[in-house]
Amino acid sequence: MRRLFEIEPDEFYRLYVDETGSRFGAGSRPAQEEGRVVGLLMTGRADSRLRPRIDSAFHAAEATPGAIDKVLAQLDSNDVAVLGLRLAGSHAASGDAWLAMVVELVQWALREEFGRARPDRAARLDLRKMSIETSATAPCLGYADALAYVFGGYASESANRRATLKLDRNLLFDPVETRRLWDVISLGDAPAPASVASLLAQSRAYLSGTYQSHILHDLTGFYSGRGETWQALLTLVNVTCPRSLGHG
């Protein structure tokens, strides 16, 4: 499934947000209960033609495997993008973690459309028309529920679906720091060495098609002609995380 930076531009979008897991605060619950938030971003084109309309009455946890697969099959489109965030990447206080993750997900969606690096896309949108719908009125929230179920599932069926749909590349482990780094690069400013080191230490930055690899590509372009600085950062990562660059 496509990432936010791959979606086709449009004048209207609908962002569906759902969560999975039960641990959205401090505690020692099992890793399987770790909170995750999933965003399903649709262009107006996709939203108008997506059928069937699957609303909040659909619950993947209660559905058959076949029903879940049919729902997910409808999302293979150039006009649909997916982003998942882990609780581990949220910097919010424990009591506000769920809300902070939702806000962070919205910021990622807006960053893709309104970042200075994407003026062609930003010019098409009018934030004055932005509105928030409740789960009772959102016409296709069931699709986000299915994605959240698959993102958070530890059973082999969920793992197989993630592999088939290549969903793991749509998951961000440290969304706050990663977005800040990308924002700085997009503005043409020099990022903090610690932020760069954090990205370089993530093995996912070296896996083709992930958000992290996309940002790493932009980062290497930024450091073109700054070879000494780049080598110093690579040395920093090798010292602090000596095995991380083995995935390159």
Describe the structure in brief.
The protein is of the alpha+beta class and 248 residues long. It has helices at 44-49, 65-73, 97-114, 119-122, 141-152, 156-165, 175-186, 193-200, 211-222, 227-240, and strands at 13-20, 36-43, 80-86, 171-172.
How is the CATH topology of the largest domain named? Answer: Nucleotidyltransferase, domain 5
Low-confidence stretches: 241-248
Rg on CA atoms, Å: 19 Å
Number of E strands: 4
Strand arrangement within the widest β-sheet reads 1-2-3-4
Number of domains: 2
How much of the polypeptide forms β-strand, as a percent range?
Answer: 5-15%
Under the CATH scheme, the architecture of the largest domain is 2-Layer Sandwich
